[in-house]
Design brief:
Helix Hairpins; 2 helices; hydrolase; nuclease; exonuclease; EC 3.1.11.6
Length: about 90
């Protein structure tokens, strides 16, 4: 079975991901909600759906890293407060 040009990875739409790293949590989450809505509605061609999925994955990863960072900061503050109360 031969692979034609339409099914090769190079044929898929290029997805812009370079801007995701500079997004705030709120920006990434808002766009992610839009991407999910578009995917849930359906009707987009396969190529566009794959591009949306890839962007959605990058946005979800960005949100998760923001939340992980916030959780780490909270744990750091809690630990410092515990140490202060133990010292008293």
């Amino acid at each position: 079975m031969t692979e034609n040009a339409a099914s090769s990875p190079e044929h898929f739409a290029s997805v812009r991901l370079d801007d995701v790293e500079s997004m705030s949590y709120e920006q990434a989450r808002e766009e992610l909600v839009g991407v999910v809505a578009k995917l849930e509605t359906g009707g987009a061609p396969l190529e566009e759906s794959l591009a949306l999925w890839q962007r959605g994955e990058a946005l979800a990863d960005r949100c998760e890293r923001w939340l992980d960072g916030a959780q780490a900061k909270l744990e750091e503050v809690r630990s410092a407060l515990d140490e202060e109360s133990d010292a008293e």
